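Query form — protein Inactive heme oxygenase 2, chloroplastic

QUESTION: What is the three-dimensional structure of this chain?
INPUT:
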Amino acid sequence: MMRLSCFCQHLSMDSAFKSPIFHPTASFSHSQVSFPFFSFQAQYLSLNKPPTILRCSNSSTISSTTNGNNNNMAGLPVKKKRKRYRKQYPGENEGITEEMRFVAMRLRNIKGKKVSSDSVSDSETDTENNPSDQEKDDSETVKSGENGSGGEAETWSPTMEGFLKYLVDSKFVFNTIERIVDESDDVAYAYFRKTGLERSAGLSKDLEWFSQRDLVVPEPSNPGVSYVNYLKELAEKSAPLFLSHFYNIYFSHIAGGQVIARKVSDQLLEGTELEFYKWEGDVQESLKDVRKNLNMLGEHWSRDDRNKCLKEAAKSFKFLGQIVRLIIL
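ANSWER: The structure tokens for Inactive heme oxygenase 2, chloroplastic are given below.
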């Protein structure tokens, strides 16, 4: 028994090192592979077809083939579409207030002729530092008449009654925009409180001065009432659009109001200077701060909102023009 056991062990060790034995059949090939601890059987199917060659490709090749031109089989680079850039608005690089200034330039008439932004862009750059030039140009609007045809009237004769209407309507407008800014919960309006440009207090003193001289101070007229109602609706609807009017109301008064004040003062008030045209401190610096804050907010507005602000700037000049014309009506 001992010999038989040794023989069996010797036989199993020899078979473990022998090469596997293959047994072909008619349609399938079976192979039996024996190992000391396990064995497995595999089948191979004979199909008489050429072998399939597989190869790897990176993701860039697959994406270029899928997304590119289907006829681009030679591996040529795919031509990319040229990116189109939107044409910028005049003054867009400097801020929304500069864009509105270009709107004012296009709307302004000088001696009955429209002035293009290209022809006056160089001279207009100095307007902010030298407002007297702007005042002379804006005075032409007052003299051009109500129809806006651009032809100057033979004489510019303000009346006391018309000037008082102008002051009353102006006070109504300034009171409204200053109250809205002070009382609103919109954080955007907080940047425009106590700017140093406020006019309602000075106008109250002027109207009191007129009333002490037995002049009848009228109620706000239709131009002022219409503008105030529009401003109230706009303030609830959109802060950017309201602030467009806010800025242009002050800018128009500072830039164009001085020449009007001098003419009226010389003809009606014997040279008296009204509080409406006095500021504490440097008014240009105060306007510069307002302009800076508005440009800062404008950077966060969409292009659509900016375009709407430009349209509102044109409406602002229209409303203000109607109030100014009260002086000569």
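ADDITIONAL NOTE: Residues 160-328 form a domain with the Heme Oxygenase; Chain A fold (CATH 1.20.910.10).
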